Amino acid sequence: MQHFPIFVALAGRRVVLSGGGEAALAKLRLLLKTEAHLTVFSPAPAPEIRDLAKAGRLRLVERAMAPGDATCAVLFYAADEDAVEDARTSALARADGALVNIVDNLGDSQFITPAIVDRDPVTVAIGTEGAAPVLARAIKADLEARLPAQLGLLARVGKGFRKMAERLAPGRPRRDFWRDWYFESGPRALERDPGEDSAARALQDLLPRHLAREARIGHVAFVGAGPGDPELLTLKARRALDEADVVLYDRLVSPEILELARREARMIDVGKEAFGRHTPQHEIDALIVAHAREGAQVVRLKSGDATVFGRLDEEIEACEAAGVSWTIVPGITAASASVAAIGQSLTRRGRNASVRFLTGHDMAGFADHDWAALSRPGEVAAIYMGKRAARFLQGRLMMHGADRATPVTVIENASRTDQRVIGATLGDLSDALTEAALDGPALLLYGLAPRDAATAMPALKTQEVS
Ligand code: SAH
């Protein structure tokens, strides 16, 4: 770092500038924001500079600079836009003990003026040591757009409240309070009613709300996000999302549903990590507990129903071990959305009095099941995570005597706009899956055909009456 950034108090200090043209004016515009005593030396000043002198904003001396003119000055700007004159004036100023800046001459300058985002009293200074002026401008434009225009006023009002805000615990509660003020509640209050008084009232109202929030103890809601269609969320799930401070969500939760979370909520994707790996379960457990312990209302959002193949118990046990309170908000599981998609019911009098939820694979690989029972006519099973296990399932079931004409319907992206239904039979299941080249989540409904296709399938008819 060649130039060390500092903010210099210029109130009542002397700042001298030599020059009367555009470069001089550009610097003066900035310097006039300060409370420095400005003196300008120029034999031929621009009319604007004369006007500023007339208005008492600066002292104008209409001649070239001479030795001793920068006495007691803290800063000096050589802005004559003439290399020889700039070298002369800066040498004089340096002899008088001022720090020197030469416009457009970084090498000979003792200090430089950064690009500035001005939200007085908040000032952001951007410097690139002259390496990338374009980048400095881009960063400035970005910050200008991002920082509320009234941030200065909000900060001024906020300053008077610093002591009062200390009633909030240091750390997160206090951070959340100021964040809310500067970026949410403050700008909103000023939109409704601009002015310092209304801002002060809004800030006064904000504190009790945050004190109340702080008094809450952390809680974890295990919420089922349903199969994807946001309209299949429960009212309770919506409310939990509305009130969440932190949402930890899985890969399969659809973006439309994440949109519904409270705007200020912190959204944490625990479904993926760098290089496509999943966040390890013990890390998810630790995250849930850590946030709840800080007092956050945590929503652990899982696709479908949280209690179905969701590793819920491990997370509940982590909460229990940490003494964190928790609740479960049930959701619509993929099996319900999938039968709805094909116009069937999961159970049917005379066909199946029970239904199984199976997983195609578990931690150890392809999962084993009671194949003999499943092979009996009329059996219905919803098979989760069954895409890769399809050939294995097919083999096991047929080996145990299942009819190869038994319908198996594959529903990809159930309830989503890109939902697909693939009708197959046990015999052609793996070929049908290869052909369909699925890339979304898919559920296999074993023993059920789409309602429309049912009559076209003699095997199913027999099964239905048997
Ligand atoms: N808790 C979830 C299941 C999680 S296991 C639930 O109750 O639905 C993940 C498996 O669920 C996926 O491999 C797929 O088999 C199934 N699944 C989840 N969402 C699905 C959807 N929209 N359509 C079809 N299957 C889905």
TrEMBL record:
Alphabetical list of CDD domains matching this protein: SUMT
PROSITE patterns: SUMT_1 (PS00839)
Pathway: Porphyrin-containing compound metabolism; siroheme biosynthesis; precorrin-2 from uroporphyrinogen III: step 1/1; Porphyrin-containing compound metabolism; siroheme biosynthesis; sirohydrochlorin from precorrin-2: step 1/1
UniProt similarity note: Belongs to the precorrin methyltransferase family.
Species, as recorded: Litorisediminicola beolgyonensis
Catalytic activity: precorrin-2 + NAD(+) = sirohydrochlorin + NADH + 2 H(+)
Keyword Repressor: no
Protein name: Siroheme synthase CysG
One of the record's GO molecular function terms: precorrin-2 dehydrogenase activity
Gene3D superfamilies, per database record: Cobalt-precorrin-4 Transmethylase, Domain 1, Methyltransferase, Cobalt-precorrin-4 Transmethylase, Domain 2, NAD(P)-binding Rossmann-like Domain, Siroheme synthase, domain 2
UniProt entry keywords in alphabetical sequence: Cobalamin biosynthesis, Lyase, Methyltransferase, Multifunctional enzyme, NAD, Oxidoreductase, Porphyrin biosynthesis, S-adenosyl-L-methionine, Transferase
Residues annotated as domain Tetrapyrrole methylase: 220-429
Gene: cysG
Gene Ontology BP annotations: methylation
Superkingdom field: Bacteria
Known EC number: 1.3.1.76, 2.1.1.107, 4.99.1.4
